[in-house]
Amino acid sequence: xxxxxxxxxxxxxxxxxxxxxxxxxxxxxxxxxxxxxxxxxxxxxxxxxxxxxxxxxxxxxxxxxxxxxxxxxxxxxxxxxxxxxxxxxxxxxxxxxxxxxxxxxxxxxxxxxxxxxxxxxxxxxxxxxxxxxxxxxxxxxxxxxxxxxxxxxxxx
Length: 156
Known about the structure:
The chain is mainly α. Helices cover 63% and strands 8% of the residues. It is rod-shaped and about 90 Å long.
């Protein structure tokens, strides 16, 4: 790489910031090298941290949406606040232990199940049909999720 392939000039300059060899006469980039400088590492670290922030934000928004679903269904069913708090605690416990991701259960089917379990814990008469009316999920999926989690809830 002693000459520019375009103008045949031997005046080749290396730009350290860009990692480029270019012709000093016509400006043609003759060759590029990968240059990792401190600035690039700072930018990469910032992008990595921002990606983590976006993921955490999405998880938090999903959690908040689940709590809103629990409260919405409970309000429509006229459930007491202690049942709502228990359903929220059950959902938080499952989320904290990673069981939601492990069992591949949708948030839409889990929120009504948390209400059913909480209501039964306080001997409140709440049927599947009551919950189906206000849930945003198909009855079969809610019932399936309920039976998956019964093993967890009642084994403690």
